């Protein structure tokens, strides 16, 4: 009971601190707003993502269509709203997956040390040497050309390819950060004590070391999330992140560029602005989190 | 990103290359680095009355027997001559051949070749040059071998050339007007790098991936060009080419996508020209296996499609509405609207699917190459078809993937861009006859096969009109294809340019009568 109360108090204090600093407050508000849209955007959108019906094509922003309509006659406002969930799904879940796997790997190799640490660290180095976007392109290129038999494992992979790519690209980074924290924490007395008590490996990693890694991890996760949004948008723009007619922000920008931009510039400007706004929001928030964590240390 | 080249022509080129490579499996794109050939005495730089034409892409093959892209043909068309040219209406126009005669069976063609024609190096044009070129085009190394391979004998008498074919071919004059049929000097060497033609312009300098500088040929047999020079400037994409026009560094851009052209034509600062072509996007369902093997399913797709809406949203109103067969309004002699198209009626489509054993509709994947406008077409179709219970997942593939390993011939549901040809028989022979090389729908219909066969052989125009009408009826009624529209070909010129007629195949646009005010 005491424990839960302490955690709740800690979280409340953390939220207070987030809104205590104006910059962080703005960032957090933006992120929460988009998070809200991610859950309810589909229900709130005035039109369907691919509804064309009687909607005029390439119409300028108006009260009817606040963000205008694209060259195929789809409401851009609705598409941006509905597209929020896809970016949170891909970038958010991808980051979460990367953090989970990266944490386990980082804790384990950091604590164990020895040749396992050496070998894994070199693999991580190799992966880090490649630019994230390039790595993503290579992985997607392989996954996307697998035969698409509905229901097969390949199909499932291809369907969630971007999410997986985000995870694969960021696992090494998270693992390295967690490893270096672990290296320092494992020399502390309470870890030594647990080892002498004969606690299991899992207990030592997750009950003794993990809580001390959390602050670093939160900062790293929020930073990864902002990069992931960018990566998802970039992959969509390059035409390999999402299949039309998905209302993916990056894909929307790609579809509206070139000659279409002369006819319906709003179809590019608004999704591009949404990407920028979310990235700025996440960055402001992540800066704030970093400051809070550093202060409490 | 494959945005360099825009639409159907690139695809056609890929087809040719893929086909040519055949079993060997290796697609070798010769990356020639043509150098300037003209002996350089003229040397001259571009004079003030040079017309500058921008392209969104650069030539990769400049051997006439292998060239196919607009930018390649445009370069060659300026330096060399065709025996017979085609104009914007697809009519045959004399060029090196001033006159021609065909026997009744369509097997013997007699051409009169212009006299007093000289090559840029000063040598006179002889019939040996013409025969050597035609032989070369029919050889195995040529990508036009299938067209010119039917030449059996050639005989020269004075300035008359008699060509005898091994089988009747009513369209052989169009073969002589083919994009690749440019006349070279006999035994020419280093073809594709060194350019000695009889054409209206002479090459001054060629800079790979950058530009080709040409000057007027004062000795051109049909009269020296009205402009002093011609410059082709190669940009990485259409956007860059259009920007060059906006900044005044070029006088003209040919080959544009629909939205770019619409944007420019609304600006009122340029002369924007669009001409009808017979190029089209072919939406096809495989007819040799389920579900497309059921005629009701094919009809359901037709009823589920609103061609007018597709035309307006994807083509932005440019070009012409299609009627589910490749004989478009450009072929005014053969085109007919006598047969009603299946009307847009999602309910009826649903019913037809139920009758065919799909009461819950269909789930399919629609494959589409990533060329401008094609993903848009796929999206419009997907939303229309969804109303009829046909739910498609759109799979946009890079063109190299779409055409690679003949994937486009395998998939059940796909969209393939087809370029404009001067005659309809081409499409029928290669894509609609049973077992034809590019019959991507795998359609096999005995009645249709017989009609195509007959139409290809007859020289009786009236009979041919009747045959083509029947072919249109069959494809509309039971064909596995939807052709929602025919493209337009675009050219945009600065205000001071006149005397240039944009050709349905932009690369065949002639510049020798261009005037810069």
Summary?
The complex is a heterodimer of chains A (297) and B (517). Chain A is mainly α.
Shape of chain A: globular
What assembly state would you assign to the polypeptide chains in this entry? heterodimer
Which regions of chain B are unreliable across 5 or more consecutive residues at pLDDT < 50?
1-47
The H-level CATH homologous superfamily of the domain at 277-487 in chain B, spelled out, is Dipeptide-binding Protein, Domain 3
Number of helices of chain A: 12
- CATH class category label of the domain at 277-487 in chain B: Alpha Beta
Number of H/I helices of chain B:
16
- Please mark out the parts of chain A with pLDDT under 50 across 5 or more consecutive residues, or reply none: none
Number of E strands of chain A: 0
Radius of gyration of chain A: 22 Å
Helix content of chain B: 25-40%
Tell me, rounded to a whole number, the average pLDDT of chain A: 87
The N- and C-terminal alpha carbons of chain A lie at a distance of 26 Å
Please state the overall shape of chain B, judged from the principal axes of the Cα atoms.
globular
What is CATH's topology name of the domain at 277-487 in chain B? Dipeptide-binding Protein, domain 3
- Structural class given helices, strands, pairing of chain B? alpha+beta
Percent in strands of chain A = under 5%
Would you spell out the secondary-structure blueprint of this structure?
The complex is a heterodimer of chains A (297) and B (517).
Chain A: H1 2-20, H2 22-44, H3 76-112, H4 114-129, H5 132-144, H6 153-159, H7 161-185, H8 189-197, H9 201-237, H10 249-256, H11 259-263, H12 266-296
Chain B: H1 8-21, E1 50-56, H2 70-79, E2 84-86, E3 92-94, E4 97-102, E5 108-113, H3 127-138, H4 145-148, E6 151-157, E7 160-165, H5 172-176, E8 201-207, E9 211-216, E10 229-235, H6 238-247, E11 252-254, H7 258-267, E12 270-285, H8 295-304, H9 307-314, E13 320-321, H10 346-355, E14 362-369, H11 374-386, E15 390-397, H12 399-403, H13 407-410, E16 413-418, H14 425-432, H15 446-457, H16 461-478, E17 481-482, E18 485-494, E19 497-498, E20 515-516
Parallel strand pairs in B: 1-10, 1-11, 14-15, 14-16
Antiparallel strand pairs in B: 2-3, 4-5, 5-7, 6-7, 8-9, 9-10, 11-18, 12-16, 12-17, 12-18, 13-18, 19-20
Helix pairs in contact in B: 8-10, 9-11, 14-15, 15-16
């Amino acid at each position: 009971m005491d424990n839960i109360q302490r955690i709740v108090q800690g979280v409340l204090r953390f939220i207070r601190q987030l809104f205590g600093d104006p910059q962080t407050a703005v960032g957090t508000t933006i992120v929460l707003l988009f998070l809200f849209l991610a859950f309810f955007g589909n229900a709130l959108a005035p039109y369907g993502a691919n509804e064309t019906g009687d909607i005029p094509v390439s119409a300028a922003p108006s009260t009817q269509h606040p963000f205008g309509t694209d060259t195929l006659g789809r409401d851009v406002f609705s598409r941006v709203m509905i597209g929020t969930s896809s970016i949170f799904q891909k970038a958010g879940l991808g980051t979460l997956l990367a953090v989970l796997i990266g944490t386990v790997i980082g804790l384990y190799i950091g604590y164990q040390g020895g040749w396992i640490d050496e070998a894994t660290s070199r693999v991580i180095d190799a992966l880090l040497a490649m630019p994230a976007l390039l790595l993503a392109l290579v992985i997607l290129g392989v996954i996307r050309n697998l035969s698409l038999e509905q229901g097969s494992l390949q199909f499932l992979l291809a369907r969630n390819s971007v999410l997986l790519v985000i995870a694969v690209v960021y696992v090494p980074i998270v693992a390295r950060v967690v490893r270096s924290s672990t290296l320092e924490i494992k020399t502390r007395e309470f870890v030594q004590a647990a080892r002498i008590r004969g606690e299991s490996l899992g207990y030592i990693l997750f009950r003794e070391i993990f809580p001390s890694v959390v602050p670093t991890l939160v900062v790293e996760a929020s930073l990864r999330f902002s990069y992931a949004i960018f990566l998802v948008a970039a992959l969509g723009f390059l035409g390999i992140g999402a299949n039309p007619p998905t209302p993916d922000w990056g894909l929307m920008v790609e579809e509206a560029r070139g000659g279409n931009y002369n006819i319906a510039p709003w179809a590019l400007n608004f999704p591009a602005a949404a990407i920028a706004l979310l990235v700025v929001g996440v960055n402001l928030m992540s800066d704030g989190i970093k400051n809070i964590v550093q202060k409490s240390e | 990103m494959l945005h360099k080249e825009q639409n159907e022509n690139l695809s056609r080129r890929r087809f040719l290359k893929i086909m040519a490579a055949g079993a060997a499996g290796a697609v070798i794109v010769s990356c020639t680095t043509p150098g300037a050939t003209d002996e350089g005495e003229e040397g001259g730089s571009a004079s003030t009355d040079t017309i500058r034409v921008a392209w969104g892409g650069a030539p990769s093959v400049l051997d006439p027997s292998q060239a196919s892209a607009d930018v390649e043909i445009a370069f060659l068309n300026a330096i060399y001559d065709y025996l017979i040219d085609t104009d914007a209406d697809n009519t045959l126009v004399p060029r090196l051949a001033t006159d021609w005669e065909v026997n009744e069976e369509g097997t013997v063609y007699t051409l009169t070749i212009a006299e007093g024609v000289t090559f840029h190096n000063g040598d006179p044009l002889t019939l040996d040059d013409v025969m050597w070129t035609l032989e070369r085009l029919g050889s195995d190394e040529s990508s036009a071998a299938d067209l010119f391979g039917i030449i059996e004998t050639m005989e020269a008498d004075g300035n008359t050339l008699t060509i005898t074919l091994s089988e009747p071919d009513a369209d052989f004059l169009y073969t002589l007007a083919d994009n690749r049929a440019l006349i070279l000097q006999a035994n020419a060497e280093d073809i594709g790098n060194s350019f000695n033609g009889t054409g209206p312009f002479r090459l001054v300098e060629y800079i790979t991936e950058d530009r080709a500088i040409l000057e007027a040929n004062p000795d051109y047999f049909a009269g020296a060009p009205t402009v002093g020079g011609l410059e082709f400037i190669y940009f990485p994409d259409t956007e860059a080419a259009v920007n060059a026009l906006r900044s005044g560094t070029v006088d003209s851009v040919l080959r544009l996508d629909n939205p770019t052209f619409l944007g420019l034509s609304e600006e009122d600062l340029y002369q924007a020209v669009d001409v009808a072509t017979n190029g089209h996007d072919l939406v096809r369902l495989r007819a040799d296996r389920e579900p497309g093997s059921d005629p009701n399913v094919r009809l359901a797709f037709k009823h589920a499609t609103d061609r007018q809406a597709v035309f307006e949203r994807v083509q932005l109103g440019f070009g012409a509405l299609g009627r589910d067969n490749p004989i478009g309004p450009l072929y005014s002699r053969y085109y007919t609207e006598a047969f009603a198209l299946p009307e847009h009626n999602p309910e009826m489509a649903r019913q037809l699917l139920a009758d065919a054993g799909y009461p819950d509709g269909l789930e399919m994947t629609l494959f589409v190459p990533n060329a401008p406008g094609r993903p848009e077409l796929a999206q419009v179709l997907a939303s229309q078809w969804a109303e009829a219970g046909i739910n498609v997942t759109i799979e946009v593939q890079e063109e190299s993937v779409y055409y690679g390993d003949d994937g486009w011939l395998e998939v059940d549901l796909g969209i393939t861009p087809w370029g404009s040809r001067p005659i309809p028989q081409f499409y029928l022979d290669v894509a609609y006859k049973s077992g034809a090389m590019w019959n991507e729908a795998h359609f096999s219909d005995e009645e249709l096969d017989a009609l195509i066969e007959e139409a290809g052989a007859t020289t009786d125009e009236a009979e041919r009109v009747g045959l083509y009408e029947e072919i249109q009826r069959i494809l509309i009624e039971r064909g596995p294809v939807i052709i929602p529209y025919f493209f337009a070909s675009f050219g945009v010129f600065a205000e001071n340019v006149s005397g240039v007629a944009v050709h349905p195949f932009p690369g065949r646009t002639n510049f020798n009568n261009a005037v810069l005010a």
